[in-house]
Amino acid sequence: MKSPVITSVVEHDLCIGCGLCAALCPQGILAMQWNCYGEYNPVETSPCTTECGLCLKACPFADSGENEDTIAKRLYGAVPGIRHRSETGYYLASYVGYSERHRPTSASGGMATWLLETLLTEGVVDHVICVSPTGDPERLFSFQVFDTPEDVRTGAGSAYYPVEMSEVIRQVLEVPGRYAVTGLPCFLKAIRLAQQRNKKLRERIVVTVGLTCGQLKSRQFTEYIADLAGVRGEVAGVRYRGKSQDQPANNFYFSFTTADGKERRLFWNEGIAEAWRNRWFTPEACNYCDDVFAECADVTCMDAWLPDFSGDPGGTSLLIVRSGEMLNLIEECCAFGKISVASINISRVVRSQRSVITIKKSHLAYRLYQDELLRKVFPKKRIRSSSNLSELERWKCKTICAMQRQSREFTLKNGCYLKDGASSLKGEMYWDLMQLRLIRFLSFPFRAVRYGLELVAQTLDRR
Protein backbone atom coordinates (compact mmCIF):
# COMPACT_ATOMS: atom_id res chain seq x y z
CA MET A 1 0.00 0.00 0.00
CA LYS A 2 1.41 3.39 -1.01
CA SER A 3 1.37 6.48 1.16
CA PRO A 4 -1.43 8.90 0.13
CA VAL A 5 1.05 11.74 -0.47
CA ILE A 6 2.87 9.56 -3.01
CA THR A 7 -0.23 8.64 -4.99
CA SER A 8 -2.01 12.01 -4.76
CA VAL A 9 0.89 14.46 -4.99
CA VAL A 10 4.28 13.00 -5.97
CA GLU A 11 3.01 10.80 -8.80
CA HIS A 12 1.24 13.83 -10.31
CA ASP A 13 4.47 15.88 -10.17
CA LEU A 14 2.98 18.34 -7.66
CA CYS A 15 5.48 17.88 -4.80
CA ILE A 16 7.56 20.92 -3.84
CA GLY A 17 9.82 18.91 -1.52
CA CYS A 18 9.19 20.74 1.75
CA GLY A 19 9.55 17.56 3.83
CA LEU A 20 6.71 18.10 6.30
CA CYS A 21 5.10 14.81 5.29
CA ALA A 22 8.27 12.89 6.11
CA ALA A 23 8.69 14.68 9.43
CA LEU A 24 5.13 14.02 10.60
CA CYS A 25 4.56 10.47 9.33
CA PRO A 26 3.72 8.49 12.51
CA GLN A 27 5.06 5.29 10.91
CA GLY A 28 8.33 6.96 9.89
CA ILE A 29 8.18 5.41 6.43
CA LEU A 30 8.91 8.54 4.36
CA ALA A 31 12.37 9.92 3.58
CA MET A 32 13.34 12.89 1.42
CA GLN A 33 15.56 12.09 -1.56
CA TRP A 34 16.62 13.66 -4.86
CA ASN A 35 14.40 12.82 -7.82
CA CYS A 36 15.57 12.59 -11.44
CA TYR A 37 15.14 16.35 -11.92
CA GLY A 38 17.35 17.39 -8.99
CA GLU A 39 14.38 18.18 -6.74
CA TYR A 40 13.43 16.74 -3.35
CA ASN A 41 10.55 14.24 -3.12
CA PRO A 42 9.43 11.88 -0.36
CA VAL A 43 10.04 8.18 -1.00
CA GLU A 44 8.74 5.20 0.94
CA THR A 45 11.26 3.19 2.94
CA SER A 46 8.54 0.62 3.71
CA PRO A 47 4.86 0.20 2.79
CA CYS A 48 2.19 2.41 4.37
CA THR A 49 0.01 0.24 6.60
CA THR A 50 -2.41 2.72 8.18
CA GLU A 51 -3.23 5.35 5.54
CA CYS A 52 -3.81 7.89 8.32
CA GLY A 53 -3.59 10.72 5.77
CA LEU A 54 -1.49 13.02 7.97
CA CYS A 55 1.03 13.43 5.15
CA LEU A 56 -1.67 14.86 2.89
CA LYS A 57 -3.08 17.14 5.57
CA ALA A 58 0.32 18.86 5.93
CA CYS A 59 1.01 19.09 2.18
CA PRO A 60 0.83 22.62 0.73
CA PHE A 61 -0.21 21.28 -2.70
CA ALA A 62 -2.83 18.74 -1.59
CA ASP A 63 -6.53 19.53 -1.39
CA SER A 64 -6.70 19.75 2.41
CA GLY A 65 -9.70 22.08 2.48
CA GLU A 66 -7.47 24.93 3.66
CA ASN A 67 -5.78 27.73 1.75
CA GLU A 68 -3.75 30.82 2.59
CA ASP A 69 -6.91 32.87 3.13
CA THR A 70 -8.45 30.51 5.68
CA ILE A 71 -5.16 29.90 7.47
CA ALA A 72 -4.24 33.59 7.67
CA LYS A 73 -7.71 34.63 8.80
CA ARG A 74 -7.43 32.27 11.74
CA LEU A 75 -3.98 33.65 12.59
CA TYR A 76 -4.37 37.38 11.95
CA GLY A 77 -8.02 38.18 11.27
CA ALA A 78 -8.66 39.40 14.82
CA VAL A 79 -5.41 41.40 15.25
CA PRO A 80 -6.32 45.03 16.12
CA GLY A 81 -5.72 47.36 13.19
CA ILE A 82 -5.29 44.54 10.67
CA ARG A 83 -6.11 45.20 7.02
CA HIS A 84 -6.33 43.01 3.95
CA ARG A 85 -5.47 43.12 0.26
CA SER A 86 -6.00 40.37 -2.28
CA GLU A 87 -2.34 40.54 -3.36
CA THR A 88 -0.69 40.59 0.07
CA GLY A 89 -3.21 38.98 2.37
CA TYR A 90 -3.43 40.50 5.87
CA TYR A 91 -1.08 43.29 6.92
CA LEU A 92 -0.62 45.64 9.88
CA ALA A 93 2.16 47.79 8.45
CA SER A 94 4.71 47.90 5.65
CA TYR A 95 8.26 49.25 5.80
CA VAL A 96 11.25 49.96 3.60
CA GLY A 97 14.85 50.14 4.80
CA TYR A 98 17.88 48.17 5.89
CA SER A 99 20.14 47.13 8.74
CA GLU A 100 23.50 48.85 8.33
CA ARG A 101 25.27 46.02 10.13
CA HIS A 102 23.74 43.18 8.10
CA ARG A 103 23.35 44.84 4.73
CA PRO A 104 26.85 44.06 3.31
CA THR A 105 26.53 40.28 3.70
CA SER A 106 22.82 39.94 2.90
CA ALA A 107 20.90 39.62 -0.36
CA SER A 108 19.10 42.95 0.00
CA GLY A 109 18.89 45.21 3.04
CA GLY A 110 19.68 42.54 5.61
CA MET A 111 16.36 42.86 7.43
CA ALA A 112 15.62 39.11 7.59
CA THR A 113 18.99 38.33 9.18
CA TRP A 114 18.63 41.29 11.55
CA LEU A 115 15.19 40.12 12.61
CA LEU A 116 16.28 36.54 13.29
CA GLU A 117 19.27 37.74 15.32
CA THR A 118 17.12 40.18 17.27
CA LEU A 119 14.57 37.48 18.12
CA LEU A 120 17.42 35.56 19.78
CA THR A 121 19.09 38.48 21.55
CA GLU A 122 15.78 39.84 22.85
CA GLY A 123 14.81 36.42 24.20
CA VAL A 124 11.71 36.08 22.02
CA VAL A 125 12.95 32.68 20.80
CA ASP A 126 15.56 30.13 21.87
CA HIS A 127 16.32 28.73 18.41
CA VAL A 128 16.26 29.95 14.82
CA ILE A 129 15.68 27.71 11.80
CA CYS A 130 17.06 29.01 8.50
CA VAL A 131 18.93 27.88 5.40
CA SER A 132 22.72 27.80 5.51
CA PRO A 133 25.61 26.37 3.43
CA THR A 134 26.66 22.82 4.30
CA GLY A 135 30.06 22.47 2.61
CA ASP A 136 28.80 19.24 1.03
CA PRO A 137 28.92 19.32 -2.82
CA GLU A 138 26.03 16.82 -2.95
CA ARG A 139 23.84 19.02 -0.77
CA LEU A 140 25.10 22.58 -0.90
CA PHE A 141 22.42 24.08 1.40
CA SER A 142 20.09 22.81 4.11
CA PHE A 143 17.80 24.02 6.86
CA GLN A 144 19.67 24.16 10.15
CA VAL A 145 18.86 25.05 13.76
CA PHE A 146 20.94 27.87 15.30
CA ASP A 147 21.08 29.17 18.85
CA THR A 148 23.39 32.20 18.55
CA PRO A 149 23.39 35.36 16.40
CA GLU A 150 26.85 34.46 15.10
CA ASP A 151 25.53 31.16 13.73
CA VAL A 152 22.49 32.85 12.20
CA ARG A 153 24.80 35.09 10.16
CA THR A 154 26.12 32.04 8.32
CA GLY A 155 22.69 31.82 6.71
CA ALA A 156 22.65 35.42 5.46
CA GLY A 157 21.84 35.79 1.79
CA SER A 158 19.60 33.93 -0.65
CA ALA A 159 19.87 30.25 -1.59
CA TYR A 160 18.38 29.35 -4.97
CA TYR A 161 18.81 25.68 -4.24
CA PRO A 162 16.48 22.85 -3.11
CA VAL A 163 16.14 22.39 0.64
CA GLU A 164 13.74 20.35 2.77
CA MET A 165 12.62 20.60 6.39
CA SER A 166 12.14 17.02 7.60
CA GLU A 167 15.25 16.97 9.81
CA VAL A 168 14.70 20.34 11.50
CA ILE A 169 10.98 19.69 12.07
CA ARG A 170 11.87 16.39 13.76
CA GLN A 171 14.27 18.35 15.98
CA VAL A 172 11.49 20.78 16.92
CA LEU A 173 9.33 17.82 17.89
CA GLU A 174 12.13 16.27 19.97
CA VAL A 175 13.77 19.33 21.59
CA PRO A 176 11.57 21.71 23.65
CA GLY A 177 11.97 25.46 23.20
CA ARG A 178 10.65 28.43 21.26
CA TYR A 179 11.57 28.47 17.58
CA ALA A 180 11.55 31.04 14.81
CA VAL A 181 11.37 29.63 11.28
CA THR A 182 12.16 31.40 8.04
CA GLY A 183 10.91 30.01 4.76
CA LEU A 184 9.19 30.43 1.43
CA PRO A 185 5.40 30.72 1.14
CA CYS A 186 4.68 27.04 0.41
CA PHE A 187 6.98 25.84 3.21
CA LEU A 188 5.33 28.11 5.77
CA LYS A 189 1.88 27.05 4.59
CA ALA A 190 2.95 23.46 5.23
CA ILE A 191 4.11 24.40 8.73
CA ARG A 192 0.80 26.13 9.47
CA LEU A 193 -1.11 23.07 8.26
CA ALA A 194 1.10 20.83 10.40
CA GLN A 195 0.56 23.07 13.45
CA GLN A 196 -3.19 22.48 13.17
CA ARG A 197 -2.57 18.76 13.68
CA ASN A 198 0.40 18.79 16.06
CA LYS A 199 0.35 20.50 19.45
CA LYS A 200 4.13 20.56 19.86
CA LEU A 201 4.61 22.44 16.59
CA ARG A 202 1.83 24.81 17.57
CA GLU A 203 3.47 25.63 20.91
CA ARG A 204 7.13 25.61 19.88
CA ILE A 205 7.14 27.47 16.54
CA VAL A 206 6.27 30.94 17.82
CA VAL A 207 7.53 33.18 14.97
CA THR A 208 7.46 32.67 11.21
CA VAL A 209 9.48 34.88 8.85
CA GLY A 210 8.45 34.63 5.21
CA LEU A 211 10.30 35.42 2.01
CA THR A 212 8.55 36.44 -1.19
CA CYS A 213 8.94 33.89 -3.92
CA GLY A 214 8.45 33.67 -7.65
CA GLN A 215 9.72 30.10 -8.05
CA LEU A 216 12.06 27.48 -6.63
CA LYS A 217 14.92 25.94 -8.58
CA SER A 218 16.33 22.45 -8.90
CA ARG A 219 19.97 21.65 -8.13
CA GLN A 220 20.57 21.59 -11.92
CA PHE A 221 19.91 25.33 -12.03
CA THR A 222 23.06 25.91 -9.99
CA GLU A 223 25.03 23.52 -12.21
CA TYR A 224 23.78 25.31 -15.33
CA ILE A 225 24.76 28.78 -14.07
CA ALA A 226 28.14 27.41 -12.90
CA ASP A 227 28.69 26.09 -16.43
CA LEU A 228 27.82 29.51 -17.86
CA ALA A 229 30.35 31.06 -15.46
CA GLY A 230 33.06 28.76 -16.79
CA VAL A 231 33.31 26.43 -13.79
CA ARG A 232 34.79 23.09 -14.83
CA GLY A 233 35.49 21.44 -11.47
CA GLU A 234 33.02 20.33 -8.82
CA VAL A 235 31.18 23.22 -7.15
CA ALA A 236 32.05 23.27 -3.44
CA GLY A 237 30.29 26.52 -2.50
CA VAL A 238 27.96 29.16 -3.93
CA ARG A 239 27.06 32.71 -3.08
CA TYR A 240 23.91 33.65 -4.96
CA ARG A 241 23.56 37.33 -4.29
CA GLY A 242 26.96 38.99 -4.33
CA LYS A 243 26.98 42.80 -4.47
CA SER A 244 29.30 44.95 -6.52
CA GLN A 245 29.71 48.63 -5.71
CA ASP A 246 29.89 49.55 -9.39
CA GLN A 247 26.61 47.77 -10.20
CA PRO A 248 23.01 48.49 -9.18
CA ALA A 249 21.40 46.14 -6.66
CA ASN A 250 19.42 44.39 -9.40
CA ASN A 251 22.59 43.28 -11.22
CA PHE A 252 24.04 41.06 -8.51
CA TYR A 253 26.38 38.16 -9.19
CA PHE A 254 26.58 34.45 -8.43
CA SER A 255 29.96 33.35 -7.09
CA PHE A 256 31.11 29.72 -7.41
CA THR A 257 33.99 28.17 -5.49
CA THR A 258 35.48 24.86 -6.62
CA ALA A 259 37.25 22.22 -4.54
CA ASP A 260 40.66 23.65 -5.53
CA GLY A 261 39.70 27.07 -4.13
CA LYS A 262 39.17 28.82 -7.47
CA GLU A 263 36.31 31.30 -7.80
CA ARG A 264 34.16 32.23 -10.79
CA ARG A 265 31.54 34.98 -10.96
CA LEU A 266 28.59 35.60 -13.24
CA PHE A 267 26.36 38.65 -13.10
CA TRP A 268 22.56 38.57 -13.36
CA ASN A 269 22.57 40.24 -16.78
CA GLU A 270 25.12 37.75 -18.17
CA GLY A 271 22.70 34.84 -18.50
CA ILE A 272 21.20 34.24 -15.06
CA ALA A 273 18.21 36.48 -15.82
CA GLU A 274 17.43 34.53 -18.99
CA ALA A 275 17.24 31.22 -17.13
CA TRP A 276 15.38 32.70 -14.15
CA ARG A 277 12.71 34.69 -15.95
CA ASN A 278 11.97 31.87 -18.37
CA ARG A 279 11.54 29.38 -15.50
CA TRP A 280 14.31 26.98 -16.52
CA PHE A 281 14.81 24.21 -13.94
CA THR A 282 11.65 25.24 -12.04
CA PRO A 283 9.58 22.46 -10.36
CA GLU A 284 6.13 21.79 -11.78
CA ALA A 285 4.53 22.51 -8.39
CA CYS A 286 5.59 26.16 -8.68
CA ASN A 287 3.08 26.50 -11.52
CA TYR A 288 0.30 26.07 -8.95
CA CYS A 289 1.35 28.58 -6.29
CA ASP A 290 -0.80 31.69 -5.82
CA ASP A 291 0.99 33.11 -2.75
CA VAL A 292 3.53 35.84 -3.55
CA PHE A 293 3.93 37.48 -0.14
CA ALA A 294 4.07 34.48 2.25
CA GLU A 295 0.60 35.27 3.59
CA CYS A 296 0.90 32.78 6.46
CA ALA A 297 4.01 34.49 7.93
CA ASP A 298 4.14 36.87 10.91
CA VAL A 299 6.44 39.11 8.88
CA THR A 300 7.51 38.89 5.24
CA CYS A 301 10.78 40.21 3.82
CA MET A 302 11.61 40.98 0.19
CA ASP A 303 13.80 43.06 -2.11
CA ALA A 304 12.75 46.65 -2.79
CA TRP A 305 12.49 46.28 -6.58
CA LEU A 306 11.36 49.86 -7.05
CA PRO A 307 13.09 52.60 -9.09
CA ASP A 308 13.85 54.60 -5.93
CA PHE A 309 15.88 51.76 -4.40
CA SER A 310 17.00 49.19 -6.99
CA GLY A 311 19.88 51.40 -8.14
CA ASP A 312 21.48 51.38 -4.68
CA PRO A 313 24.24 48.72 -4.76
CA GLY A 314 23.88 48.18 -1.02
CA GLY A 315 20.39 46.71 -1.36
CA THR A 316 17.13 47.64 0.36
CA SER A 317 14.43 45.53 2.01
CA LEU A 318 10.65 45.76 2.13
CA LEU A 319 8.67 44.32 5.04
CA ILE A 320 5.04 43.35 5.51
CA VAL A 321 4.15 42.90 9.19
CA ARG A 322 1.10 40.91 10.34
CA SER A 323 1.86 40.14 13.99
CA GLY A 324 1.42 42.75 16.71
CA GLU A 325 4.48 41.44 18.55
CA MET A 326 6.65 41.79 15.45
CA LEU A 327 5.29 45.30 14.82
CA ASN A 328 6.23 46.39 18.34
CA LEU A 329 9.71 44.89 18.00
CA ILE A 330 10.41 46.69 14.70
CA GLU A 331 9.07 50.03 15.91
CA GLU A 332 11.10 49.83 19.14
CA CYS A 333 14.34 49.02 17.31
CA CYS A 334 13.66 51.77 14.80
CA ALA A 335 13.13 54.29 17.59
CA PHE A 336 16.51 53.35 19.13
CA GLY A 337 18.30 53.65 15.77
CA LYS A 338 19.13 49.96 15.49
CA ILE A 339 17.68 49.81 11.97
CA SER A 340 17.00 52.39 9.27
CA VAL A 341 13.40 51.85 8.16
CA ALA A 342 10.42 54.00 7.24
CA SER A 343 6.79 53.31 6.49
CA ILE A 344 5.89 52.76 2.86
CA ASN A 345 2.50 52.60 1.16
CA ILE A 346 1.37 48.99 0.73
CA SER A 347 0.53 49.77 -2.91
CA ARG A 348 4.22 50.36 -3.59
CA VAL A 349 5.11 47.06 -1.93
CA VAL A 350 2.64 45.33 -4.24
CA ARG A 351 4.10 47.15 -7.24
CA SER A 352 7.62 45.95 -6.36
CA GLN A 353 6.50 42.37 -7.11
CA ARG A 354 4.35 43.14 -10.15
CA SER A 355 5.92 40.57 -12.47
CA VAL A 356 5.60 37.78 -9.90
CA ILE A 357 1.96 38.71 -9.24
CA THR A 358 1.25 38.43 -12.97
CA ILE A 359 2.68 34.90 -13.06
CA LYS A 360 0.94 33.75 -9.86
CA LYS A 361 -2.42 35.33 -10.63
CA SER A 362 -3.17 35.96 -14.33
CA HIS A 363 -0.89 33.28 -15.80
CA LEU A 364 -1.97 30.76 -13.15
CA ALA A 365 -5.62 31.34 -14.05
CA TYR A 366 -4.83 30.62 -17.70
CA ARG A 367 -2.77 27.51 -16.84
CA LEU A 368 -5.71 26.19 -14.80
CA TYR A 369 -7.99 26.83 -17.77
CA GLN A 370 -5.62 24.82 -19.98
CA ASP A 371 -5.43 22.02 -17.42
CA GLU A 372 -9.23 21.79 -17.30
CA LEU A 373 -9.32 21.38 -21.07
CA LEU A 374 -6.73 18.59 -20.83
CA ARG A 375 -8.49 17.02 -17.80
CA LYS A 376 -5.20 17.19 -15.94
CA VAL A 377 -5.00 16.66 -12.18
CA PHE A 378 -4.19 19.91 -10.36
CA PRO A 379 -4.67 21.25 -6.82
CA LYS A 380 -7.62 23.45 -5.92
CA LYS A 381 -6.54 27.10 -5.88
CA ARG A 382 -7.99 30.43 -4.79
CA ILE A 383 -7.53 31.69 -8.34
CA ARG A 384 -10.29 30.62 -10.69
CA SER A 385 -9.47 29.25 -14.12
CA SER A 386 -9.83 31.82 -16.87
CA SER A 387 -9.00 32.31 -20.52
CA ASN A 388 -9.06 36.08 -20.02
CA LEU A 389 -5.53 36.82 -21.25
CA SER A 390 -4.52 38.81 -24.29
CA GLU A 391 -3.25 36.82 -27.25
CA LEU A 392 0.29 38.05 -26.61
CA GLU A 393 0.15 37.04 -22.93
CA ARG A 394 -1.22 33.61 -23.86
CA TRP A 395 1.62 33.16 -26.31
CA LYS A 396 4.14 34.25 -23.71
CA CYS A 397 2.68 31.96 -21.03
CA LYS A 398 2.71 28.92 -23.34
CA THR A 399 6.25 29.63 -24.52
CA ILE A 400 7.66 29.94 -21.01
CA CYS A 401 5.84 26.78 -19.88
CA ALA A 402 7.34 24.93 -22.85
CA MET A 403 10.84 26.08 -21.89
CA GLN A 404 10.27 25.05 -18.28
CA ARG A 405 9.38 21.53 -19.43
CA GLN A 406 12.33 21.41 -21.84
CA SER A 407 14.84 22.38 -19.16
CA ARG A 408 13.62 19.60 -16.83
CA GLU A 409 13.49 17.04 -19.64
CA PHE A 410 17.00 18.03 -20.74
CA THR A 411 18.28 16.85 -17.38
CA LEU A 412 16.23 13.65 -17.55
CA LYS A 413 17.31 12.90 -21.12
CA ASN A 414 20.99 13.14 -20.18
CA GLY A 415 20.66 11.29 -16.89
CA CYS A 416 22.10 14.27 -15.06
CA TYR A 417 22.99 17.84 -15.96
CA LEU A 418 26.13 17.77 -18.10
CA LYS A 419 28.92 20.18 -17.27
CA ASP A 420 29.15 21.19 -20.92
CA GLY A 421 25.38 21.28 -21.31
CA ALA A 422 24.75 25.04 -21.18
CA SER A 423 25.31 25.60 -24.88
CA SER A 424 23.26 22.50 -25.75
CA LEU A 425 20.33 23.65 -23.62
CA LYS A 426 20.41 27.16 -25.05
CA GLY A 427 20.42 25.60 -28.52
CA GLU A 428 17.25 23.67 -27.69
CA MET A 429 15.64 26.88 -26.44
CA TYR A 430 16.63 28.96 -29.48
CA TRP A 431 13.25 29.20 -31.21
CA ASP A 432 11.39 29.76 -27.95
CA LEU A 433 13.74 32.62 -27.08
CA MET A 434 13.16 34.11 -30.55
CA GLN A 435 9.41 33.96 -29.94
CA LEU A 436 9.79 35.83 -26.65
CA ARG A 437 11.81 38.55 -28.36
CA LEU A 438 9.03 38.96 -30.91
CA ILE A 439 6.43 39.08 -28.14
CA ARG A 440 8.40 41.82 -26.34
CA PHE A 441 8.66 43.79 -29.59
CA LEU A 442 4.93 43.53 -30.25
CA SER A 443 4.13 44.40 -26.62
CA PHE A 444 6.27 47.57 -26.56
CA PRO A 445 3.42 50.11 -27.09
CA PHE A 446 1.39 48.52 -24.28
CA ARG A 447 4.40 48.45 -21.93
CA ALA A 448 5.08 52.13 -22.63
CA VAL A 449 1.52 53.07 -21.68
CA ARG A 450 1.69 50.91 -18.56
CA TYR A 451 4.99 52.51 -17.54
CA GLY A 452 3.44 55.97 -17.82
CA LEU A 453 0.49 54.93 -15.68
CA GLU A 454 2.85 53.50 -13.08
CA LEU A 455 4.76 56.78 -12.84
CA VAL A 456 1.47 58.57 -12.14
CA ALA A 457 0.53 55.96 -9.51
CA GLN A 458 3.92 56.26 -7.81
CA THR A 459 3.56 60.02 -7.61
CA LEU A 460 0.14 59.65 -6.01
CA ASP A 461 1.45 57.05 -3.53
CA ARG A 462 4.12 59.42 -2.25
CA ARG A 463 1.66 62.20 -1.46
UniProtKB/TrEMBL annotation:
<feature type="domain" description="4Fe-4S ferredoxin-type">
    <location>
        <begin position="6"/>
        <end position="35"/>
    </location>
</feature>
<dbReference type="Pfam" id="PF04422">
    <property type="entry name" value="FrhB_FdhB_N"/>
</dbReference>
<dbReference type="GO" id="GO:0051536">
    <property type="term" value="F:iron-sulfur cluster binding"/>
</dbReference>
<dbReference type="Pfam" id="PF04432">
    <property type="entry name" value="FrhB_FdhB_C"/>
</dbReference>
<dbReference type="GO" id="GO:0052592">
    <property type="term" value="F:oxidoreductase activity, acting on CH or CH2 groups, with an iron-sulfur protein as acceptor"/>
</dbReference>
<feature type="domain" description="4Fe-4S ferredoxin-type">
    <location>
        <begin position="38"/>
        <end position="70"/>
    </location>
</feature>
<dbReference type="Pfam" id="PF00037">
    <property type="entry name" value="Fer4"/>
</dbReference>
<keyword id="KW-0560">Oxidoreductase</keyword>
<keyword id="KW-0479">Metal-binding</keyword>
<dbReference type="InterPro" id="IPR045220">
    <property type="entry name" value="FRHB/FDHB/HCAR-like"/>
</dbReference>
<dbReference type="InterPro" id="IPR007525">
    <property type="entry name" value="FrhB_FdhB_C"/>
</dbReference>
<protein>
    <submittedName>
        <fullName>4Fe-4S ferredoxin, iron-sulfur binding domain protein</fullName>
    </submittedName>
</protein>
<dbReference type="InterPro" id="IPR007516">
    <property type="entry name" value="Co_F420_Hydgase/DH_bsu_N"/>
</dbReference>
<dbReference type="InterPro" id="IPR017900">
    <property type="entry name" value="4Fe4S_Fe_S_CS"/>
</dbReference>
<keyword id="KW-0411">Iron-sulfur</keyword>
<dbReference type="InterPro" id="IPR017896">
    <property type="entry name" value="4Fe4S_Fe-S-bd"/>
</dbReference>
<keyword id="KW-0408">Iron</keyword>
<dbReference type="GO" id="GO:0046872">
    <property type="term" value="F:metal ion binding"/>
</dbReference>
